[in-house]
Amino acid sequence: MCNLQDLFFDYVLAFAKIINVRDPYTWSHSKNVAAYSYMIGELLGLNEEEKFNLYLGALLHDIGKAGVPESILNKNGRLSADEWVVMKEHTTIGYSLLRDEVQFNERGITDVVLHHHERFDGKGYPHGLKGDQLLLAARIVAVADGFDAMTTNRSYRYARDKCEAARELLHNAGTQYDPVIAQVFADYILNSKPVIHAALSHSY
Fold first, then answer.
1. Domains in the chain and their CATH numbers?
2. Cα distance between residue 75 and residue 124, in whole Å
3. CA-CA-CA-CA torsion sign (21, 22, 28, 33)
4. Ranges for the HD domain (predicted)?
5. What is the pTM of this model?
């Protein structure tokens, strides 16, 4: 018989798949970010409940893109300044979609959705929070999100090598990314390249 955690995971998974209908790339990206986030959680010594909630938050981090116009979401090329303003609204749209669900709030999932584009130096969005003002889960997902974005092919640029992306994380440690999280994850990538793909197969 399924336990409550299994049922909640199935609920989150069904919710997360909403974005796949409109943007298969974002769904694939979200699964990658969830796997990388879970890996970082293990490297940082988080307990099982913390890693479970982190995984779910990462899986849903871009759910707000379901409310972004398809002309912007699936544009074949870089976004204009005006389009970028609209795209950035996906954080608050996602928060609005989830905020009335008690479990999403208690597990920190809504915080991840709202704050995964904040920066460690306070220059991110939507609220300009910095450092420890951000929950650990949001800081972890920011690193995982940035890494997967850099290592994925897009219409306007080629993917970076994973080691190059890891070095970019280190370059931006303390500004864009939490320096401890960036260091721990980058060290893992740089020293474990042959097995990094195995992380992407992780699921509950």
1. 28-199 (1.10.3210.10)
2. 23
3. negative
4. 26-150
5. 0.91
Q: Is the peptide bond before 126 cis (omega within 30 degrees of 0)?
A: yes
Q: Which amino acid is located at 45 in the chain? A: G
The predicted structure's pLDDT at residue 200? 53
* pLDDT digits 0-9 by tens, 118-154: 999 999 999 999 999 999 999 999 999 999 999 998 7
Beta bridge partners of 177: 173
Q: Which regions in the chain score pLDDT beneath 50?
A: 1, 194-195, 198
Q: What's the per-residue H, E or C state across the chain?
A: CCCHHHHHHHHHHHHHCHHHHHCHHHHHHHHHHHHHHHHHHHHCCCCHHHHHHHHHHHHCCCHHHHHCCHHHHCCCCCCCHHHHHHHCCHHHHHHHHHCCCHHHHHCCHHHHHHHCCCCCCCCCCCCCCCHHHCCHHHHHHHHHHHHHHHCCCECCECCCCHHHHHHHHHHCECCCECHHHHHHHHHHHHHCHHHHHHHCCCCC
